[in-house]
């Protein structure tokens, strides 16, 4: 038999490799990244390939299947989003101004912080709820796909060298106290007051495959769905719509839209630039 | 470059980039149709960049939402605090770590565009004080796209165009006005059968 020739039709070999890798990871480990947005996923795969010494996506696949620790490292790559406390200060100001008064009307408040990553956003929300006197009757469910990431979120220790930037964000978000009241500086970093997260339940949840687990008055899911393709985004919007009480609030990232989803008509815009949406049906 | 399609133009700039990008948009004909995406390094705070650039062109200018489709005629500005990636389906945003201190990163946009648009892409590196864009421009050239670099002698900061030229010595080099003419010529040529 003669060696195979190059395919006559231009086939995107790398796309074939990425498809095969995602299928293999799903079948062997059960993690389903097949509906992640390809441009950013491809970047992350190549970055991981480089760090593992692989020169092709297929080479990375071989390592992933035969070395569980390599899979764990990829999982970290795919679940850590580099974020900041009070990222997009105008969002937190809008949350305080617009969402907090709505939450105040409930005797007990349930909030879902979906895709909480390493916990910067969860802690920021907890600080606002504490300042507004609501933390005592609020339960925040902070979920992420990845257990080690959740452990870090739970720990509430953030790099000391970020505190200057976080303090500026906090003030820009309308914070009125001394931000340093909320943490103790130690050798391991800035440890945030554990009482902030007493009412927080950190748990594993996979937006791509898990179901709704409660009814919430607000869902905060910012810059998580940007990593999903439009079909998976639709699935997550179904999940959120099902998980919100009527008149509950959905908070998205500043460049995320519901206009093109099947639920566009189910929400009223509360704040167009800070992407706050209220479920009306 | 006879008859090659020009489906997308990507532009990267840093220090001095606002003026250079404004000059480039102004120098392009008003009916210049290929969607044009600008990455300008800046702080993460919301900014008026899109508004400022819109004063220099009659084309619509804005920051794209995630998964928004890429529309002909439009000018897009990468939003601060995100990487902007593009393929034939539209825009994707990412909040991964800054690449060489930059988010948005020129390299990230250029690499994604080179992959999706190959020879029908034109990429422009303008003034700037770092080397972002050089690796991305090399990817554009390797994929058969058109590489254009502002003459470092005419740039407010020469580091970025000089680094791009070192990475792609065969790139077209010229002033902003000459780059605009070259883009316009490439765009008009694609109409010729």
In short:
The complex is a heterodimer of chains A (281) and B (193). Chain A is of the alpha/beta class and 281 residues long. Chain A has helices spanning 13-29, 38-52, 57-66, 68-79, 89-103, 120-131, 147-155, 163-172, 230-243; strands spanning 109-114, 138-144, 157-158, 183-186, 189-192, 200-204, 216-221, 244-252, 267-271, 276-279.
SSE topology sketch:
The complex is a heterodimer of chains A (281) and B (193).
Chain A: H1 13-29, H2 38-52, H3 57-66, H4 68-79, H5 89-103, E1 109-114, H6 120-131, E2 138-144, H7 147-155, E3 157-158, H8 163-172, E4 183-186, E5 189-192, E6 200-204, E7 216-221, H9 230-243, E8 244-252, E9 267-271, E10 276-279
Parallel strand pairs in A: 1-2, 1-7, 2-6, 7-8
Antiparallel strand pairs in A: 3-5, 4-5, 8-10, 9-10
Chain B: E1 8-13, H1 17-27, E2 36-40, H2 49-54, E3 61-62, E4 75-77, E5 83-87, E6 90-94, H3 106-117, E7 121-125, H4 134-142, E8 146-150, H5 159-167, E9 172-174, H6 176-189
Parallel strand pairs in B: 1-2, 1-7, 2-4, 3-4, 7-8, 8-9
Antiparallel strand pairs in B: 5-6
Description:
The complex is a heterodimer of chains A (281) and B (193). Chain A is α/β, with parallel strands linked by helices and 281 residues long. Chain A has helices at residues 13-29, 38-52, 57-66, 68-79, 89-103, 120-131, 147-155, 163-172, 230-243; strands spanning 109-114, 138-144, 157-158, 183-186, 189-192, 200-204, 216-221, 244-252, 267-271, 276-279. In chain A, helix 9 links the parallel strand 7 (216-221) and strand 8 (244-252). With 193 residues, chain B is an alpha/beta fold. In chain B, 32% of the residues lie in helices and 20% in strands. Chain B has 6 helices and 9 strands. In chain B, the strands form 2 sheets. Chain B has a 7-stranded parallel β-sheet with strand order 3-4-2-1-7-8-9, sandwiched between helices. A two-stranded antiparallel sheet of chain B has the order 5-6. In chain B, helix 1 (17-27) links the parallel strand 1 and strand 2 (36-40). In chain B, helix 1 (17-27) packs across helix 6 (176-189) and helix 3 packs parallel to helix 4 (134-142).
């Amino acid at each position: 038999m003669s060696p195979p020739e190059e395919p006559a039709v231009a086939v995107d070999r790398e796309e074939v490799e990425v498809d095969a890798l995602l299928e293999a990871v799903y079948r062997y480990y059960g993690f389903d990244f097949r509906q992640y947005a390809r441009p950013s996923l491809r970047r992350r795969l190549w970055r991981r390939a480089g760090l593992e010494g692989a020169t092709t996506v297929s080479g990375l696949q071989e390592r992933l299947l035969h070395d569980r620790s390599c899979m764990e490292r990829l999982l970290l790559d795919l679940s850590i989003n580099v974020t900041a406390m009070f990222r997009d200060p105008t969002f937190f100001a809008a949350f305080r101004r617009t969402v907090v008064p709505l939450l105040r009307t409930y005797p007990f408040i349930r909030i879902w912080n979906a895709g909480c990553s390493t916990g910067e956003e969860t802690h920021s929300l907890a600080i606002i709820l504490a300042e507004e006197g609501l933390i005592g009757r609020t339960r925040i469910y902070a979920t992420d796909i990845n257990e080690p990431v959740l452990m870090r979120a739970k720990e509430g220790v953030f790099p000391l060298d970020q505190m200057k930037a976080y303090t500026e964000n906090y003030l820009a978000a309308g914070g009125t106290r001394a931000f340093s009241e909320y943490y103790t500086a130690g050798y391991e970093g800035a440890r945030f007051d554990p009482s902030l997260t007493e009412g927080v339940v950190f748990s594993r949840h996979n937006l791509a495959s898990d179901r709704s687990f409660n009814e919430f008055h607000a869902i905060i899911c910012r810059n998580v769905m940007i990593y999903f393709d439009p079909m998976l985004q639709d699935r997550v919007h179904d999940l959120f719509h099902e998980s919100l009480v009527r008149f509950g609030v959905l908070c998205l990232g500043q460049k995320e839209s519901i206009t093109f989803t099947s639920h566009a008509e189910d929400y009223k815009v509360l704040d167009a630039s800070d992407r706050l949406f209220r479920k009306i049906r | 470059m006879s008859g090659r399609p020009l489906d997308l133009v990507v532009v990267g700039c840093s220090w001095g980039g606002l003026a250079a990008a404004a000059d480039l948009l102004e120098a392009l004909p008003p009916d210049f149709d290929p969607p044009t995406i600008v990455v300008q390094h800046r702080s993460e705070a919301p900014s008026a960049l899109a508004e400022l650039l819109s004063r220099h062109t009659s084309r619509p200018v804005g920051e794209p939402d995630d998964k928004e489709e890429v529309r002909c005629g439009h000018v897009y500005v990468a939003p601060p605090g995100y990487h902007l990636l593009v393929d034939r389906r539209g825009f994707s945003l990412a909040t991964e770590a800054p690449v060489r201190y930059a988010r948005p990163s020129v390299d990230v946009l250029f690499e994604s565009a080179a992959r999706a648009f190959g020879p029908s892409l034109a990429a422009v590196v303008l003034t700037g004080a770092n080397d972002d864009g050089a690796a991305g421009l090399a990817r554009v050239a390797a994929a058969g796209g058109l590489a254009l670099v502002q003459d470092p002698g005419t740039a407010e900061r020469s580091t970025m165009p000089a680094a791009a030229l070192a990475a792609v010595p065969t790139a077209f080099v010229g002033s902003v006005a000459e780059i605009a003419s070259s883009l316009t010529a490439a765009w008009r040529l694609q109409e010729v059968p």
